[in-house]
Design a protein that fits this description.
zinc-finger; mainly alpha; single chain
Length: 221
């Protein structure tokens, strides 16, 4: 999910660039200072942050290269002509591209930006949450469809397995019946074998008896 924190505060946008004096343009960033500008002894105007960064590298005016010190740099005095010229510059909010309609003087821009960012961030957060809800809803529909598909596959598989189980049960019953018949046949065969052996013994006994009778008859003659 994208972050709702802005990378930086968007700068104001000039309503009419032709009505802004070049003397009020920062000679470093070439933009209108959004906070109270500072002025060098040689009367050149800069953004405070821009000039402080430049003086860390070279302690001279970026415009005419005259040597200066940090104590020489002063903010525009409120109420004076240059301050009034800067304070009355008309600007639009830097968030105008995303729906902010505010227009006003640059001196009021900072106060508006603090308010505007809260509104923009709140709206962005709402939009992000709304988009997230749409995304989750879409995912739920996809999951529901997938679940229905899996259920259909599961039911088909269960039906197939049930049919196979019924076939196996029928085959098992058939095998049981054949096994029972085979056991019965085996038992009957064993009984026949026993009867045959018994008859053999009887035959042997009769044969011996007959032999004895014949011997006795021959002897009596």
């Amino acid at each position: 999910m994208a972050s709702t924190e802005p990378a930086e505060t968007p700068p104001p946008i000039l309503v009419d660039e032709t009505r802004v004096s070049d003397e009020l343009i920062c000679g470093i960033c070439l933009s209108i200072p959004t906070d109270i500008p500072v002025m060098t002894p040689c009367e050149h105007i800069f953004c405070r942050d821009c000039l402080e960064q430049a003086m860390k590298l070279n302690k001279c005016c970026p415009n005419d290269r005259r040597p200066i010190s940090s104590t020489d740099v002063i903010p525009l005095e409120k109420g004076k002509l240059l301050w009034r010229m800067w304070a009355n510059i008309q600007v639009k909010c830097g968030n105008c591209g995303v729906g902010c309609p505010w227009k006003g003087t640059i001196v009021n821009h900072k106060e508006h930006t603090e308010y505007c960012l809260r509104v923009i961030l709140a709206n962005n957060k709402y939009d992000l949450l709304a988009n997230e809800c749409k995304k989750l809803k879409k995912e739920c529909h996809l999951l529901a469809a997938k679940n229905a598909e899996l259920k259909e596959e599961k039911d088909a598989e269960c039906s197939k397995l049930k049919k196979e189980c019924n076939l196996l049960a029928a085959e098992n019953a058939h095998l049981k019946a054949k096994t029972s018949t085979f056991k019965k046949f085996k038992k009957e065969r064993r009984q026949l074998v026993e009867e045959i052996e018994k008859l053999k013994e009887e035959k042997k006994t009769l044969k011996n008896s007959l032999s004895l009778l014949i011997g006795a008859r021959e002897k009596n003659k």
